[in-house]
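Section 3.1 - Work completed
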Amino acid sequence: MDHLILRKLIEDGLVKEQNPSNLPPQILFFSGGSALTGLSAQLKKITPLSIHLISPFDSGGSTGKLRKAFNIPAFGDLRNRMVALMDEDARGYKEIAWLFKYRTAESDDKRKCLEEFNNLLEGNHLVFEKLPLLIKDYVIKNLIYFKNKFAREFDFCGASLGNILLTAVYFRNNKSLESMLKELYLLFPIRGIVRLTSTEDFQLFARLEDDTEVVGQHLITGKEVEPLCKKIVDLRLVKSLGEGVEVTCYLDKNNERYIKSADLICYPPGSFYSSIIANLLPKGAGKAVASTECNKVYVPNLGTDNEQYGMCLQESVETLIRYLRRDAGNSVETKTLLTHVLLDEDSSLYRGDLDTDFIQAHGIQVLKSRLVTGDRNTYYNPRLLAEALASLS
């Protein structure tokens, strides 16, 4: 574990001593996006040591604008997860969360948007009103740094203050993700470990069943454009949105250490390809999972995932294993990559069933529990899911 994070947890009284046997469970997620926001809010009540490996390949919205302008990894999902894991009892939590989520107005008038951003820098905006003074000064200092360095190159219309803050801290630290994270953890009450799987400025490339090629996460998710109407048959990384040359991306060594220290590895609900599979593409990810002796659980999506067009539950499990084997190798036993599939007790919430012979042959255990409540049958109950995962760690 990162010693700085552990030391801060000890100082905050969330961990009593540096004795591994007394530490709360370290549950690691290959994830991204907003699907785990509710779950994260519950996890921080169970353990301050959940580990979240976030995809750096988002290419849409404010994140996409920053990536296009500065050739950097995506910080939007990293920011969202940090906010979800912040201590709600900490002084200024609501104001910090609002600041991280705040966006400037959408407009075609770039000069007007820059004026709004300049007004924010004066510190009189409501978003700064109740912030602790130390945090207010820190945020304004970094926003001023960003403006002075990049104002001529960047369109401030619809810009996320949280994304700009992280970008500023990243550049101030000479584009060192480690230094950026350490700085943020010293100041903000984040109750979990949030990291990018890689810092490479690459893009997602999907090949569909009719050989159509789609480049860019924002074109795969079906959120900014019409959803795909063909099945994805392959997902890879390419150098840029305009260049379909496949590239090799390597798992960060510190991420490898976190994977190997996990008490539970979870492939959670969320965008199947752009959040989960994307995080398994860096070379070394599958091998790190295979070498870790802990339970590894897949929690399939409920409802409709635009990226899983035409996929049934069985295909989802097989696809997950296939991408893990790309790196781990075909000779490793399946149970080193996936030990459990966790489902709600109502099997009608999923598309299709799991093949019993396949599950038994590969040594995978299927666990069913009450994970959905009320009539919200396209969402897991965050508390029940958090408790179920904690019981497997």
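Second construct:
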Amino acid sequence: MKILYLAPHAFYVDRGTPISVDLNLRAISDRGRDEVHVCVYGRGEDRAYPNVTVHRADVPRWVGEIGPGFSAKKLLADVSLFRLAGQVFRRERPDLVYAGEEAVFLATRLRRRFGVPYVYDMDSSLAQQLVEKKRWLRPLAGCFAWCEGRAIRGAAACVPVCPALADVARSRGAEHVELLPDISDLADPDRPATGFLRERLGLPPGRPILMYVGNLEAYQGVDLLLGGYELALRQQADLELVIVGGSDADLAAYRRKVERRGLAGRAHLLGRWPAARLDEVLAEADILASPRVRGINTPQKIFPYLHSGRPVLMTDLLTHNQVVDNSVCRLAAPTPAAFASAMKELADDAGLRARLGAAGRAFVEAGHVYAAHRRRVDRLLDGVAARHACGAADTAHT
């Protein structure tokens, strides 16, 4: 098949959705029988894959850095991206459009006008995301749900990343749903700790390290993590907190929060860290945390977390418990008190840490590694091609 892949974000950058796109492009490229044209924003690190061409939209530089989620900046960038996608579509005449996020609405238009089927890559519910991030948009929730439902019903396949999103797709009339969960792509899950992080941050030897890795957006629950950690220290929990990731502005804001809570010297902000070297920093942790408090999609980070063999503390919310349970991680209610109790329990019990770490790794290796992802991508694309005769004949797009 010839595939037009629409990814409305900077690419490649170390963030959840671009990481997923990178994995998808690798899997499609490894099939060795498809030609892919990818349209992305202008910024980001170059990536090269056999049979894949990356086209970059000329987004004005004054737009600046575009973070995750809905924003005016993203809408401005989409104008450039959609213009580019139209040009590539007319020139390349693809058999299939693979669309993520709001690009699905362009794919819907192309299907209506030219009859080209599209796959909707659902890494979140756009309707839910809009009203969660911008509360003033809540009166329009019904309209957003209707628009998203129309895009879902028109798709040749909806590709959610978790069971809750699969339920959303089915409830809105999806023709075909193919679950494509996130995976771990750690370079070396067995990498031993070197102690570089303790030396760099001046941490005392022997004291367990509780670590969070990811952006510092509100939905990630880093404020909950800090509140729980503050209470855990009052309960004499013996551990250090290290927060990895975040934009410069978010790092500055959280440094102030750490100071206000009296956690200076115990809560440490490392800053950005390359995803390709994630195994290096995870190896330094004794406990990992995913304190997400909003959304129904499962965080991509929990799979490399679990794959590292470290015990993982997560909020006991649908975002996590639709995929994992207390046999492979430690789920805690999304309150500072519950998180503090779980932190202390894990810090005090090395045996519990070892048991959960081993169980978590086994869970990931059973179905959340690259080989499993390749099989799922093959099944998805072969199924769409068979149902819609994609690639069987050259279609006359005008």
